[in-house]
Amino acid sequence: MPYTVKGAIARSxxxxxxxxxxxxxxxxxxxxxxxxxxxxxxxxDLSYRDGGINDEFPFLLGHEAAGxxxxxxxxxxxxxxxxxxxxxxxxxxxxCRACKRGQLQYCFNTSNASKKMxxxxxxxxxxxxxxxxxxxxxIVHERQCTKVDEAAQPEVAGLLGCGVMAGIxxxxxxxxxxxxxxxxxxxxxxxxxxxxxxxxxxxxTTIIALDLADAKLEAAKQFGATHTINxxxxxxxxxxxxxxxxxxxFGADVVIDAVGRPETYRQAFYxxxxxxxxxxxxxxxxxxxxxxxxxxxxxxxxxxxxxxYGDCLPERDFPMLIDLYLQGxxxxxxxVTETISADQIExxxxxxxxxxxxxxxxxx
Length: 364
What we know:
This protein is of the alpha/beta class. It has two domains: 3-161 and 331-363, Medium-chain alcohol dehydrogenases, catalytic domain (Quinone Oxidoreductase, Chain A, domain 1, Alpha-Beta Complex); 167-308, NAD(P)-binding Rossmann-like Domain (Rossmann fold, 3-Layer(aba) Sandwich), CATH 3.40.50.720. The protein has helices at 43-49, 97-100, 154-157, 163-174, 190-202, 214-220, 236-245, 262-271, 294-300, 314-326, 345-354, and strands at 3-10, 18-24, 31-40, 59-60, 64-72, 84-87, 118-119, 126-127, 137-141, 145-147, 182-186, 206-211, 227-230, 252-257, 272-280, 303-306, 336-340, 359-363. Strands 3, 5, 6, 9, 10, 17 and 18 form a seven-stranded mixed β-sheet that branches. Strands 13-12-11-14-15-16 form a six-stranded parallel β-sheet, sandwiched between helices. It has a five-stranded mixed β-sheet with strand order 7-2-1-4-8, with no helix packed on it. Strand 14 (252-257), helix 8 (262-271) and strand 15 form a beta-alpha-beta unit. InterPro entries: ADH-like_C (IPR013149), ADH-like_N (IPR013154), ADH_Zn_CS (IPR002328), ER (IPR020843), GroES-like_sf (IPR011032), MycoS_dep_FDH (IPR017816), NAD(P)-bd_dom_sf (IPR036291). One of its GO terms (cellular component) is cytosol.
């Protein structure tokens, strides 16, 4: 029988978050019901609310979540009732053209639940990133669940579901940072700090954090930044020169843009060494356009990469990173600025906008 529980929705573009009754259907074939224990407040949720993703309102927000499986549908074999899981929005299908050529991290056919959650009047909700986890219970496809060691607290573990995984993966998977390399990270929010942590895990010896706020630069040091640059008031050329100054005049081997604006991408492009790698992991607004001289794209060589979800494979990466956290080698807990209740999500969006938190985490 369906469940009626409280969930956080965005009813229209720019409207404040509402806590309303949501009807969660019985799981269909391949579906799983997960009792949410914690869910991070991610900038992507703010983008959904503000119409920066698409216009399929109303949205059921939330996607960086951990919880426990409480019911399964017909044919489910991937998880069972009682499993402690992190939710992931890339559910590898194994059948699309990306999967069949061995590039599972690009799976083009991500699976979602077979049934929709609704308002009590029957209005269908669009779950953020196919998950919708600012809610007491959610319905997802079984492949959207990754079982991990339950010794990791849910408010920490759930962050791997999006932002932290995106940043770590941008460094390790997409940027392919190697031991002894130099890395610059532009933007020291949750994703940027995760990229710094990933670069440290990979063995980078020079890790440069760039941001507009001194407080965020200071926080970046606890994740592994060896140098910091406050770019407030600096021109593009000055930012590039500052990166080069800290890398023997050459530029960084890898520059990660965790902001996703044309000006920060140009800083990344010119702030790398010849044949260096640029990684874009910050999500740009759909209206942003980039202008670069094509001769510079050709002449500087290297690689320009976009990092989708940190190019992760949840079944491989989530358990590994949880193990590193439990071993004390990855400070996931430092990403949690505060734990809040669901009725404080709107206020948490304001803190994201002001840059005063890495992650607010809703606990249930």
